[in-house]
Design a protein that fits this description.
By secondary structure, the protein is mainly α. It has 18 helices and 2 strands. It has a domain of about 325 residues. The chain is globular, with a radius of gyration of 23 Å. The two termini are about 25 Å apart.
Amino acid sequence: MEGPTQSASFLSGRSGLYWAITLAAVTAGVVLSETYLLAALPFILLMVAWAFYSLNSLLLCLVAITPLSITLKDQGFNVGLSLPSELILAGVSLFLLLRFLQNGQLPWKALKHPVGMAIMLQLGWMGFTILTSEMPLVSFKAWISRIWFVVPLFFAMLEVFKSPKSRDWFFPLYAFSLAAASLYTMYVHSQYGFSKETSTWVMFPFYKEHTVYGMALAFVFPFACYRAFRRQSLLSQVIFSGLLLVLTAAIILSYTRAAWLSVIAAAGVYALIRLKISLRFFLAAVLFVGMSLWATQDQWIRIFTKNDTVSSDNFREHVQSVSNVSTDASNLERINRWMSALRMFSVRPHTGWGAGTYQFQYAPFQHSSEMTIISTNEGSMGNAHSEYIGPLAEQGWPGFLAVIIFMWALFKTGFRVVLRLPEGQDRSLALMALLGLITYYTHGVLNNFLDSDKAAVLVWGAAALLVYLDLEWSEKKN
C-alpha cells in the first residue's frame, strides 16, 4: 500500500519554495478574513503530499505523535477527537479508499489471514447493527471511527512492516513519546503531592484520564524491559534504562490497578513462553481456572465483601482495594455498569442497542441498589468498562462472539509466531507485541479503549506486526 517514493524530500528545492509561498498566502488570507479554520489548510495539503510521496513514513510519524496528540471533546455533537492524530488517520483512510477506487488492489493476503477475516467480521456486524440501532447516527459514527483506525493501523501498517527498520522503530516511536507525556504528567502531579485524587486527570490533555494512560504504559512496558536488559552499546543501555525508569515511575504513580494487574499477567505469559508451554495447554489452564472461579463464586463473593479497604494514596491499601466490592466506589460503579449492560443485552440479545449507544441508553437499566456516589443518569460517564460485556449490550451475542473470534485468531497467531521464529530481532518484537496485547486484553476485563487512538495505534499496530511476521514465515517455509 505504499505510495511512490522519491529520492529527494518533497520539501526541498522548488517544492519547499511552493510550500512557503502557499503558507504565507494562507496565513495572510486567514488574518485578513478572520476565517481561522483556513489555518488548517496548509496542514491538510502537507498531509496529502506526504501520503503521496511516502505513506510509510507518514504512518510511522503518526505512531510517534499519537501519545502527544491533544484530546478534545465536543459535548454538543458528542465527538471526541485527538488532534492531529485522528485527522491524519481519517485522511489516510480516505487516501487509501481513493487509491483503491483507482487501481482496485486490495491486501488479499491480509484479508485471507484468520486475523484479517476476524476484523472484517467485526466491521461487518458492526455495520449491520447500524440498521437496528436505537441511535443510528451515533452507531454510524462509531463504525466510521473504527474503520479509520483499522484501515491505516492494520492493513496499511502491513506494508510498513516490510522494512526491518520500520519494524524496529514501531515500539520506540510510541514509547519515547509516551515517556515525554509521562514526564509532563508527573511534573503536574508533583504540584499536587502525587495524590491519588489528582492522578485521574493530571495526564490531560495528552490522555483523557488515568485508565487509558495506564493502559498505554502497561502495553509498552514489556518492550521497555526488553530493551533495557538486552546486550547493546553503553549509550543505548543508558537511554533505554532511562526509558524503563520513567515508565515504571509513571505506571506506579498512575494509580491504575488494572494496569498493574495486566503487567503481572504479561509476566506470567512470558514465563509460560520461556518454559515452552503450548497454547493449548495455556488455554486449557485458563479455562480450568475460569470454571473453578465460577464454581466457587459464592465463597469468593463472601471474601470480597469482607474487604473494606478503599483505594487511597497508600500503595498497599490501593492494591488491596482491587477486590473490595463492598465499599470501593470505583469497583462498585464497574459492577453497576456491567449489570446495566447485561440487562440491556437481555432486552435485545441478537442485535443490541447499536455501537456507541451504551452511554446514552444504560441509565434506565440501573438499579438504585447498585448505584454509587459517582453514578449518573446523564450519559456523561462513558462506556460499559469492559471489552467483552460492552459488545454484548451494543451488538448482541454476535458482537461478543466476533470479539472472541478475533482474540482467538490474534493470540493463536501470536503464539505461533513467537514459538516458531528463530532467535533474533523479529522474534523479540513479536514477543513484545504479544505481551503488549496480553496487557491490553487483561485490562479489557475492566475497561475498553478501542474507540481511542491512544489504544488503537498499539492494538492494531501490534496485530499487524504479528500477522506480517506470520505471513512472511509461511512464505519462507513454502
